[in-house]
Structures are given as C-alpha cells and as structure tokens.
Write a structure and sequence with these properties.
Shape: globular
Radius of gyration: 14 Å
Strand content: under 5%
Mean pLDDT: 81
Distance between the termini: 20 Å
Low-confidence stretches: none
Largest sheet: none
Order of helices and strands: HHH
Length: about 70
C-alpha cells in the first residue's frame, strides 16, 4: 500500500523546498497530541513513551481519509 500524499501544512513561495517547514502529517500529529494533552484526566506521565507513535498513527489515518476525499 502506498503512503498518502503528505504536502506542506503551510506552503509559501518564500520558503525553499529543502527546509519548507512542517508537513501535513506533522501538523496532524501535533494537533492529535494537543487534544490528548488538553484532556483533563491526561498527565505527561500517563501519555507515556507511546504517545508520539500514536499521534503519528492518527495523522497517517487522517492523511488516508484526506486522500479518499480528493478522489470524489
């Protein structure tokens, strides 16, 4: 299975391609982490070392769903 498209989150002509900032995957993962941390029952200790992995899994799922929408 091929990976879904992962464009830049905030594209700009002023930013070069090599160091173009975060990707959509990074943005989605960060938003997932913000949602987790914002939950009243979640602490840094309860997130554990697997939080980043889970956030990127969620980001990959969001990219896959985003790609499906483009095919409509």
């Amino acid at each position: 299975m091929s990976k879904p498209e992962n464009p830049r989150a905030f594209p700009s002509a002023a930013i070069d391609d090599q160091f173009g900032g975060m990707t959509m995957r990074d943005w989605f993962a960060g938003q997932a982490l913000a949602g987790m941390v914002g939950h009243p029952k979640v602490t840094a200790a309860s997130l554990g070392i697997h939080a980043a992995k889970r956030c990127y899994e969620l980001a990959d799922a969001m990219l896959a769903e985003r790609a499906k929408g483009r095919g409509k």
